[in-house]
Amino acid sequence: MAVYTEVTDDALDAFLEQYDVGRPLSCKGIAEGVENSNYLVTTETGPLILTLYERRVQPGDLPFFLGLMDHLAGRGIPCPTPIRGRDGRSLRDLAGRPAALIEFLPGMWPRRITPHHCDRLGTALARLHEAGLDFTMTRPNSLGPADWRPLFERCADHADDVHPGLAAELDAALADLEAGFPKDLPTGVIHADLFPDNVFFLRDEISGLIDFYFACTDVLAYDLAVCLNAWCFETRGEFNVTKAKRLLDGYRAARPLDAAEMAALPVLAQGAAMRFLLTRLYDWVNTPEGALVKPKDPLEYLHKLRFLRGVDGPAALGLA
Ligand SMILES: Nc1ncnc2c1ncn2[C@@H]1O[C@H](COP(=O)(O)OP(=O)(O)O)[C@@H](O)[C@H]1O
Ligand SMILES: N[C@@H](CCOP(=O)(O)O)C(=O)O
């Protein structure tokens, strides 16, 4: 479960008094998610999400994340709007953490992913990229290629306890990525973590894109690679090229990919697999036994990385 910081009734009352949202009727911790503390707060005016920012979120990045959500929502992207208090601010402190009240979006994330979900996701991602082009704030990717080796070094000593030979395998894969990671591809605002649990559907259409707390300014096609990895592998590990094709076609219907972006897709996907493998490995070896949050399996991403390193071109990933 992801409620790291408890909020007392008195603190919540005082917090909500700064907004025009009516009095609280209930406040329930949300079990899903791993990064921040989230509460479903129902007030006289309806449901809201209260987020207290924890661990990986740097307070200095919050104006970028909240400003981006505001910007995208204003351009018709179905992402939640941060609620402003009577003083015009959407960010304040609660229980010793930076906190924001966020619009509640209806819908459910898909537990069983179909090619149709991938198609809708592709189009929504392309629209998000287009809508982000005139967002004036920037934020470097704090988990980009330059950060992978330092992150690996912080957990390399324990890697072989997770899987024999893992340290050497990651060292070699990192060296290949360092030598061949593409530069000079089109950049803009990317979500950078658009996994199925961050995409809500209602009656077969996307009703919400949430969790913008890894968003940054980076290669647009890298975001597509993150989605390819997160949406187009089956639970037993096989790559589903039908889902990949629908994802890529859905994306290209709203934002065409240029030749360099298409050619780079396999290596971008390897990089995206490396990024999630490393953060999961770091969390796996640093989460104490009995902790409230169960770390995600790094080996899922080792299998994906191995597959992607064997791919001989973008066609194998569904690019016609
Ligand atoms: N705007 C929202 N509308 C509705 N539910 C939300 C919203 N934001 C978060 N949630 C709920 O909170 C859960 C965790 O949110 P998420 O942003 O993924 O947390 P974390 O950053 O901790 O991973 C989601 O799975 C969803 O159930
Ligand atoms: N998507 C990441 C973990 C981040 O979790 P989220 O709940 O913030 O999406 C992973 O799967 O490793």
TrEMBL record:
Alphabetized CDD domains for the sequence: HomoserineK_II
GO molecular function: ATP binding; homoserine kinase activity
Top-rank taxon, per record: Bacteria
Presence of the UniProt keyword tRNA processing in the record: no
A biological process from GO: threonine biosynthetic process
UniProt keyword list: Amino-acid biosynthesis, ATP-binding, Kinase, Nucleotide-binding, Threonine biosynthesis, Transferase
EC class: transferase
The enzyme's E.C. designation: 2.7.1.39
Keyword Transferase set for record: yes
Pfam family, one: APH
Annotated pathway: Amino-acid biosynthesis; L-threonine biosynthesis; L-threonine from L-aspartate: step 4/5
Domain Aminoglycoside phosphotransferase: 27-257
Reactions listed under catalytic activity: L-homoserine + ATP = O-phospho-L-homoserine + ADP + H(+)
Family under the similarity heading: Belongs to the pseudomonas-type ThrB family.
Listed PANTHER family: AMINOGLYCOSIDE PHOSPHOTRANSFERASE DOMAIN-CONTAINING PROTEIN, AMINOGLYCOSIDE PHOSPHOTRANSFERASE DOMAIN-CONTAINING PROTEIN-RELATED
Record protein name field: Homoserine kinase
Organism field: Roseospira navarrensis
Gene that this sequence comes from: thrB
